[in-house]
Amino acid sequence: xxxxxxxxxxxxxxxxxxxxxxxxxxxxxxxxxxxxxxxxxxxxxxxxxxxxxxxxxxxxxxxxxxxxxxxxxxxxxxxxxxxxxxxxxxxxxxxxxxxxxxxxxxxxxxxxxxxxxxxxxxxxxxxxxxxxxxxxxxxxxxxxxxxxxxxxxxxxxxxxxxxxxxxxxxxxxxxxxxxxxxxxxxxxxxxxxxxxxxxxxxxxxxxxxxxxxxxxxxxxxxxxxxxxxxxxxxxxxxxxxxxxxxxxxxxxxxxxxxxxxxxxxxxxxxxxxxxxxxxxxxxxxxxxxxxxxxxxxxxxxxxxxxxxxxxxxxxxxxxxxxxxxxxxxxxxxxxxxxxxxxxxxxxxxxxxxxxxxxxxxxxxxxxxxxxxxxxxxxxxxxxxxxxxxxxxxxxxxxxxxxxxxxxxxxxxxxxxxxxxxxxxxxxxxxxxxxxxxxxxxxxxxxxxxxxxxxxxxxxxxxxxxxxxxxxxxxxxxxxxxxxxxxxxxxxxxxxxxxxxxxxxxxxxxxxxxxxxxxxxxxx
Length: 523
What we know:
alpha+beta, D-Maltodextrin-Binding Protein, domain 2, three-stranded antiparallel β-sheet, 14 strands
């Protein structure tokens, strides 16, 4: 790692920050002071950039990439970058431990469910103070309406990654079986046709297909339903307002601002009732509620005909490469437009730790992550000609002699931090140079929830949220995979909701509604 080359010798001016946000760093520098001659190519600001790594990296190759970034960043930005790569399984805990110490730490990823607690412990910088600058203007230009979505209680804690945020529910189907049974011709399925066009099929049509497959292939499960909570979005849309305990029933009313219990809505009941009926009929993979293999493994093995999923352009090619089977996409949706929520966009944000010795320089680096294609390509793919090459079509791929089994440097995490759309499209055989444009067009189908931009602060309700999650985990998988069975849906829903209210659900709903109303009054 690069060592700090100079000691800061100028005292920082006092900067008054909003209460409850970044108090330690608020004493460091006021907006506009940091770049005013304090740093130069000879005396750069030493910036620690923490990020999770999803793939194994060669240490020497990573260090070489870090050097290449600094060959650019030091003369252009007066910033010397030190990588702090962390394993994905441990990064949140490690960063939180660093907050409590004196570790150098500047730019960090922020998972949406961590935002409230990290703000409450004064671990994050409120970046509102830097938005009225040239760097802020460039971030606004890059993100548009998304620039302020990472705000909670008036604190701008992070910027969302610029990537696709809209996914539409539907199925991936075994193409060979569809062709054989006439399903392909009847429904107009085509290979690699997975771009949403504003129209879709119905769940009644899905049931007809499942019945036909069961009749022709009684040893294959017609449908696999993932047992994760997020899989519900395949069938019905709510704005979960972060934690699903108090939601907006978007399917019932796209403009609603009334917080309700998701598990008491007619849309939830209708969905789990339909799934239970399908389970009783043998349409759903019998072990869906407890399965650990996953849809890709089961599709590859030929154990299932289809799986419920969230679709987007390029999804089929990606999954076919993983599964080794031809598949068709079947969008199933009850509205022309899809949904954007704060949670969809704010899944991960890029922000500044209160440990930062100069938040304005950290902010300048964040601006570069959203506007400087050379920086993004270096961080994501390494050094051109050494770690990757640009192909004739303008996409990027490993250099000759390297692939996914023997590369030395490859991050591919632009979906988590920064602006993925300014970097190269990685050509893994499933994408071309138009891929980013396709995703942006896909996002264009989305209508925003009435609460888009609202982030609920659950800090004072941590005990209730923990208890509610325990209740939800007891009932949810069986209900949302249908394995509860039709005969038990009513009684289980009643038992489930009684347990939720006993765990404090009404208090959470009331406070969430109060915060939402307050937020709406200020828009």
